Amino acid sequence: MSNNRTLTSLINDANNFSCRVVILFSMILVPITAANMADAATASAEISGHAATPQSTPSATTPVSPEQERLYLIQVLQKRIPGTNPNDWVVGGGAFEPGVQATPLNADNATNSADILAIGKKLWDRKFVDGKSLANCFPNGGKRVAAAYPQFDTATKQVVTFEFAINRCLQLHGEVPIDYANAAVIGPLSAYGKSLADGQKLAVRVAGQGARDRYEAGRRWFQQRIGQKDFACASCHVLRAGEQFERAGLAPAVGQAVTWPRIQPGGSIRTLQAQFQRCMLRSGAEPFAVGSDEFNNLEYYLAYMSNGLPLKPLAITTSAAAPTATALTTTPK
Ligand code: HEC
Q1: Within 6 Å (CB) of ligand 1, which residues are found?
Q2: Of the residues 88, 89, 236, which should be mutated to test ligand 1's pocket, given the most ligand atoms within 8 Å of the CB?
Q3: Which tens digits make up the pLDDT trace of 215-273?
Q4: Phi and psi of 269, rounded to 5°?
């Protein structure tokens, strides 16, 4: 991430939206420094309509509660895409590709999905050397628990994604943890574990200062412009939500976290954090590793923004669009 550029904020004053877009796309590049991070927090505070003092640390300038931010973001996105609501957004960017419906399960990927779940179940039920299995590490054997992830672990002060919790269980029982980049293994396992909470409303909690700091770190990554293209996640998934990038529809930030993992064209699996990597490449930035603190924090923020929406692993097929960055297909409004 050494080539990362500036820090700017984006999430926005819904009443002054077009103006914000112009500001976003005309910001001057500056390298990332601690001071800039504080600036970003300040800017976020301003656009959220709450005053913040420039001297404050990011966590001290926290403008609004995560819940207020979620509701505010929904309002902003509804201005972008009138007549829609978060339940419409969970189907992903495909909804904004003319002629292409968000790909629901058809006969082919229904078969894929059943196969993936069967592989996942085998891995989930596998007995460890000590005779236990993954079910022993989760309340209710894992039923209805995945909707409460990511979680903040007060002991280690880390964000624990559902996949992280799986690996922590393996380690606790003397088993070899799974490489997060190995989507062929962690994908089916995560899909199966999440299927035990299928349809449960996402209920991510951010309670206490430690959790809040992680959430804020994720929020900053979402709003920070990065890479040669100088895009923030929010450039595409808030300011351009409902538009297209290289013919791929841009899904709104609210609703992005509930339908993972996804099946890729061809039947393989994509995890949420592998999607983050695709999008960083798109911005011309060197992606963080899957399972990194940066991505875990980012997932924590993004998942919170999807709170209340039903968890649906494997529900849709990913877009096949290549993650190369050129120009946005529409000009800033
Ligand atoms: C230049 C525009 C652009 C930027 C910047 C961008 N994305 Fe994306 N994103 C896309 C496109 C296009 C897709 C459609 C799927 C694909 O081809 O990868 C997508 C898909 C996604 C999805 C799946 C969305 C869905 O519901 O269909 C997630 C999650 C996501 N991006 C997260 C992020 C995060 C996190 C960042 C910041 C690190 C980010 N994106 C930055 C363009 C962008």
Answers
A1: 92-93, 231, 233, 235-237, 245, 248, 250-251, 256, 272, 275-276, 278-280, 282-283, 298, 319, 321, 323
A2: 236
A3: 999 999 999 999 999 999 999 999 999 999 988 899 999 999 999 999 987 788 999 99
A4: -115, 145
Instruction: Tell me which residues are annotated as active site.
Output: 279
pLDDT per residue as tens digits for the range 93-119: 878 877 655 555 556 666 788 999 999
Residue type, 117: L
Write down how long the chain is: 333
For the segment 184-207, the average pLDDT, to the nearest whole number, is 97
pTM above 0.85, yes or no: no
Picking from 311, 265, 230, 269, the residue whose alpha carbon sits closest to that of residue 103 is 265
Q: Are 161 and 261 in contact (CB under 8 A)?
A: no
